[in-house]
Amino acid sequence: MTDPAVAPPRRSLVHHRDFRALWTGDALGQLGAQLATLAVPVLAVQTLHADAWQMGALTAAETAAFLVIGLPAGAWVDRMRKRRVLIGADLVRAAALGGVVACAAAGVLSMPVLYAAALVMSCATVFFDVAHQSYVPGLIGLDHVVEGNAKLQATASVAQVAGPALGGVLLRVVTAPALLVVNAATYLLSVVFVARIRADERLPPREERGPLVHEIREGLAFVAHQPLLVRIVVCTSIGNLGWSVVSALLTLYALRDLGLTAAGLGVALSAASVGGLLGALLGERVARRVGEARVIPLAAVALALPMACVPLAGVLPWNPEVTLAAGLAVAYFALVVFNIAAVSFRQRLCPPRLLGRMNASVRFVVWGTMPVGGLLGGWLGTTVGVVPAIWVGVTTGVLAALPVLASPLLTMTTLPEPAEHPGIRTGS
């Protein structure tokens, strides 16, 4: 006879039907996003001959919506069925990419067209990301959020490995616009799988809703009154600022300064993403061994320092592709571990009714610095040169670790205890 005091072993989310559907849809969307991350900058540099400033503006356009509509998006998502938001966002992103392909086929593609498509996709991504992070805890239960986030991070990491490699191979035989067709198809396939989720999501009664401005303020206030969460948010926002400076110039730097081909860049990024895959596979184990709280500041440091390999790739006496891939691999490993712990932290901390607004408030701050970083990278690349500008971004990333290093997180081991999450009633 089983001892009632002994808890039964927790069943893996692999057996959770709705999570499998979300997981598969997310995998397809992540693969598409990685293809676009390679194809769009290559299209801008090789076909439209974009300069540093234009590449910075393109990076800013890709994340501008988090700064412009990030806060109201959270309140809106809290009033919507999140599965429908995910489906709608994927359809919009597929349509935007289709527009770029059509313009390229008609011979009218230009940088303003890429800016417009990036802005549309940025808006769709705001709603997708806020809905996704708010949907997962209720769908699987807070006891499973670390496992769920680890599996979703594993998906993202596999996509980061497969996407650039696949894109690099395809760019040997097809054009960048043709690669965007594949990208659009992955978003449409994502819709098919997400639409299979059967969970009955319950929205808060209309009478409990307040004015939009009040709900936005409520989400911001929750974040502002959580000292540890504030430190994580400040760390992430400064880190994203620095990474956006580097990211804005990375393709230009690799293709023009390092002399890599588009396929070579894809291979280097794919090799680097193996670090992210290892982080996803080992992240939960690392967090439990080191401490789910302590791992956050340690991962922040491990993320920032290897980024110096990017500007050093042009001066060290090794193959630049190897130097680039090695530095980014260590950084991606630490980034995934950091994300698993940080996202689980805030999902456990926040009351269910505030999840959308809390996630949007966090995204507004941490992603709102990215368009600023993109423009800063473009301006610095134009005025002081591409390599000095990348060094500014790397230095900013190192400084980003200070808020969490000088915090109680370094001496803590566990995250806050999970609370009941009644937001979604799941089926078998």
UniProtKB/TrEMBL annotation:
One of the record's GO cellular component terms: plasma membrane
Listed Gene3D superfamilies: MFS general substrate transporter like domains (1.20.1250.20)
Membrane topology term: Multi-pass membrane protein
Highest rank taxon of the organism: Bacteria
Entry GO MF terms: transmembrane transporter activity
Major facilitator superfamily (MFS) profile domain sequence ranges: 228-428
Record protein name field: Putative MFS family arabinose efflux permease
Xref: CDD domains: MFS_MefA_like
InterPro entries found in the cross-reference section: Bacilysin_exporter_BacE_put (IPR022324), MFS_dom (IPR020846), MFS_trans_sf (IPR036259), TM_effector (IPR010290)
Keyword field: Cell membrane, Membrane, Transmembrane, Transmembrane helix, Transport
Cellular compartments annotated: Cell membrane
Species per Swiss-Prot/TrEMBL record: Luteimicrobium subarcticum
Membrane-spanning parts: 21-44, 56-77, 97-128, 174-195, 228-254, 260-283, 295-316, 322-343, 364-382, 388-406
